[in-house]
Amino acid sequence: MKINVFVSNLAKYNDGELTGQWTTLPVDDVNKDILDKLDLGGDSKHGYHDEWFISDYEAPFKIGEYDNLYALNELAEALEDYDTIEDVYNALDDREATGCEDVYDFDDEFFDTMFESKQEVARAVFFGDIHNWLDRYIFINGCGNCESMTEYDYQEMLNNHASEIIEEFKNENL
Q1: How many domains does the chain have?
Q2: CB burial of residue 89 (10 Å; 0-12, 13-18, 19+)
Q3: For the purposes of burial, counting CB atoms within 10 Å of the CB of 149, is it exposed (0-12), middle (13-18) or buried (19 or more)?
Q4: Cβ atoms within 10 Å of 93's Cβ, excluding its own
Q5: pLDDT in tens, the chain (174 residues)
Q6: Which among 31, 53, 80 is the end of a domain?
Q7: Which InterPro entries does the UniProt entry name for this protein (predicted)?
Q8: Gap between the Cα atoms of 169 and 163, Å rounded
Q9: 151 by DSSP, 3-state: which?
Q10: Which three-class secondary structure state does DSSP give residue 57?
Q11: In terms of C-beta density within 10 A (0-12 exposed, 13-18 middle, 19 or more buried), how is residue 82 classed?
């Protein structure tokens, strides 16, 4: 997964000048590869006195201005084997912690596994919300009824919960 950050010099920003550099994480050494290049007035031996901030980023999850750059670099290293937020989500042990629906493929196996009788299936479908019988995904809503979901809806759900997915990934892996 690609994570790009624009790290800026805070002192120069406060003086009205936005300076900094785009960096793709992970890097080998945050101090040497990013902070030393910002002319922060300190050095890696004596500290940077938090004179930097993340003024922009490109990632599928939220990154704050003052997020810990070292921890973010460690996260980026752990995410190197994942291409998308969906890949990260699928690798989680506890998907419920993300706030996402527990989504299944919309096929016969879903109905065979989730329901004990055809009457239960009929009730869950009748009172549910099947948008289209050709939708790719299905889930059981809070009332115990079936709702279908398109690929677009599924990806949107993952993107809307990307920060929670990343938090759960950190809890499980870092």
Answers
A1: 2
A2: buried
A3: buried
A4: 9
A5: 999 999 999 888 888 988 899 999 999 999 899 988 887 765 555 445 568 899 999 999 999 999 999 999 999 999 999 999 999 999 999 999 999 999 999 999 999 999 999 999 999 999 999 999 999 999 999 999 999 999 999 999 999 999 999 999 999 999
A6: 80
A7: ArdA, ArdA_dom1
A8: 10
A9: helix
A10: strand
A11: middle
Which residue range(s) make up the domain with 61? 3-80
For the whole prediction, is pTM greater than 0.85?
no
82: tokens are 């994942």
Same domain for 99 and 139, yes or no, is: yes
Phi first, then psi: give them for residue 159, nearest 5 degrees. -65, -40
Residues 56 and 133 in one domain: no
